[in-house]
Amino acid sequence: MAASRGEFSSRIGFIMAAAGSAVGLGNIWGFPTQTASNGGAAFVLVYLVLAFCLAYPAFMAELLIGRYGQANAVTSLQKMSRTLFHKRFAFLVGFGGVICAALILSFYGILAGWMVSYAIEPIAKVIGSDTTATWVISQSLARNVLFTAIFMFLTVFVIRRGVEDGIEKWSKRLMPLLITLLIILIGYVFTLDGATEGLNAYLNPDISRVLEPDLLISALGQAFFSLSLGTSVMVIYGSYISKKENLVTLGAQVTLIDVSIAFLAGLLIIPAMYVAQAQGVAIFAEDGSLISGSGLVFTVLPSLFETMGGMGLFVAFAFFILMSVAALTSSISMLEGPVSFVVERHNVERKKATTFIGILIFIMSTAIISNIGVMLDFVATLATEYGQPIIAMLCCVFVGWIWHRSEILKELQEGNETVENSLFWKIWPWYTKFICPTAILIVFIHSL
Ligand code: PHE
């Protein structure tokens, strides 16, 4: 089994894949929206602190579990277990992560399908098919099912090819495309009237809000969602990292990329909102709050693109392709969690397992679509507000309380012989044992 598992062929391959998983709709849509509605730079500051001080240590725990176990989340956690009780607990935590990834994919695929459909709309307009253009952005059942199916097909297509040929190859192609598109769009928005005002709103912190409980909870949730924690994803990606690599730096690099892209997305979306306002588009809802969520992406921004005439069609296309690409490199990681579990635990061939699980998740998506007003929110809340923090916390408990210090050190020393003398080793084990689980628990209880 070990020989056929696959491994990232290079350090950059892992960085692109893990950053691909991390950078998604959460960064380009969630982060700017949350920032705009939580006092601008105050939220950014808190987010940065929490991302590095809480999410990064938890992320390291998950990578380490996977690299040690060299297997899917359940098997990896069980390898660290010493008693039958640990083993059962390991199963619950690992399998919980697998289910969480599947649940997230079942609604994420719908949102990503919308991005694809909005990228097709300008093409339909260019070729003069106004009926198609209207249909692809309608909220009809058929349109939702079709575009979710298209997006799931792409996800399955990549994952069927495995680690090197699928995940790594496509992440290496798509991530540079994503960064290029993002930078071009930022450059363009900065040339427009109103952008400076947006920049001010983004970068001037309202420090008084820094300690607001709501802001803290949103920032922590955002940081965990963004690093794909508590879903078995980073455990399985960790298991594909070669023992020659230095995990501590790799983890830090991925966190840095994730946070930087969220920051860049803020530089695009928030100024774009103020440019829209300068063009007469309403950016405040009736209660005086900034329009966020789907209203921002599917109403405010498209209205802005419309004011740009012909150029607007290109900008709209580029923007929604950017969103689709970001979503795809994340969705493949969500599918890899359940697929690796079925392939390794039940000895099913990868291609068959991928298609089968892809279809199952798609059926779940259609169930959500059939009652979208209620189900979308319900599944999203269940998986991201409950599932992710609880499972991420239990992974920290596993590393901190069940694993021996000497074993942790041994695994960290692979590819990093001097880790014992580093600041990381002085702080992190203690941090993962006490601070991470407590902080996650506090925030979690608070959010209830
Ligand atoms: N991190 C991704 C994003 O920001 C979402 C994600 C969550 C990916 C969980 C994998 C697992 O959009």
TrEMBL record:
Compartments where found: Membrane
The keyword Transport is annotated on this UniProt entry: yes
Transmembrane regions listed in the UniProt entry: 12-32, 44-68, 89-111, 145-163, 175-195, 215-238, 250-274, 313-335, 355-374, 386-403, 423-445
CDD domains, sorted: SLC6sbd_Tyt1-Like (cd10336)
PROSITE patterns: NA_NEUROTRAN_SYMP_3
Chief place where the protein resides: membrane
Membrane topology: Multi-pass membrane protein
Keyword flag Membrane: yes
Alphabetical keyword list: Membrane, Transmembrane, Transmembrane helix, Transport
PANTHER family, alphabetized: TRANSPORTER
UniProt protein name: Sodium-dependent transporter
Species annotation: Thalassotalea castellviae
